[in-house]
Amino acid sequence: MLRSTLLAAARSTGARKLVESTPFTRPVVDRFIAGEDVDAAIRATGALVADGRTVTLDHLGEDTLDAEQADATVAAYGELLSRLDTAGYADRAEVSVKLSAVGRSLAEDGEKIALENARRICSAAEAVGTTVTLDMEDHTTTDSTLDVLRELRVDFPWVGAVLQAYLKRTEQDCRDLAHAGSRVRLCKGAYQEPASVAFQDKADVDLSYVRCLKVLMAGEGYPMVASHDPRMIAIAADLAGTRPLDGYEFQMLYGIRPEEQKRIAAAGNTMRVYLPYGDEWYGYFMRRLAERPANVAFFLRSLVTT
Ligand code: FAD
After folding, report:
1. How far is CA 216 from CA 53, 60, 133, 270, in A?
2. pTM of the predicted model, to two decimals?
3. By residue range, what is the domain housing residue 198?
4. Assembly ipTM
5. Of 37, 114, 181, 190, which cross-links 287 as Cys (Cβ 3.0–4.6 Å)?
6. Does 31 sit in the ligand 1 pocket, CB within 6 Å?
7. Pair 161, 42 in one domain
């Protein structure tokens, strides 16, 4: 109930204005978001890299409804990639991109524009020697994201994508993407989805996550295990079997379980932190609150005590 309310609020302009205008929101936002500009993102990347973690950076934004804003997002990724290169982090940090931030929701030719914009980001990433992973948004966009992935991979075979275990289709998508050279970031899924397409019970989502992990770990691609769940992490390590430590990786979100992130990295695994930055933090922040009652309690406490 709380989860659905928060996820509905994540898409509401009224709720957005309210949350953004509350001055006390900021300290809570700072726990999950590295800062509003590229300088902050580079600083946070440096700190993570310094203790052995790797990074994927997300220039926050989604549901872009004008072409200029989509262009500005592409330019922001260009600047980010060049700054990562200059700072010497391009071999430890890649970028994550939401297709809705680069034009997919535009009324005319949205998908075509998003594909072209994603290509520009991929070229910039290739120029500095790093990679791009496509985030996955709500289920109405899954086919479109996978189509764009296929197109991009013709020129940039290293492009990866996220799959969401809560969707009933995902086990099959894992089979389709478990081929050599493929990079799949498996997460549970963060949007509000109907029962017709998505498992609703946490236990069913977890079972699906394990089935998907089995497919990916048995396949020839590069599995990226994106979860904070200790059970999923232990099962992934077990299923990895004889895979070399550089044959898969673990991933968590910035600000969540940082000590566990360090422990996993110190054990010799690749531990990648998803690091969001920028001023369009509202949707991302609300999905984090929806994931965990403790996050909401933390938010409410800060309203009372700040
Ligand atoms: P949950 O079921 O939320 O949590 C399970 C257990 O993990 C908890 O019981 C607890 O033990 C532990 N845990 C979780 N959170 C905390 C915490 N804050 N502190 C301490 N312990 C905690 N979703 C999308 O829909 N699309 C995407 O493109 C996408 N990209 C992602 C990329 C990365 C790298 C990651 C890590 C997640 C991404 N997500 C994405 C979000 C994802 O779908 C989940 O909503 C989110 O990761 C929470 O699921 P979970 O696997 O951590 O398990």
Report:
1. 23, 28, 16, 17
2. 0.93
3. 35-280
4. 0.97
5. 190
6. no
7. yes
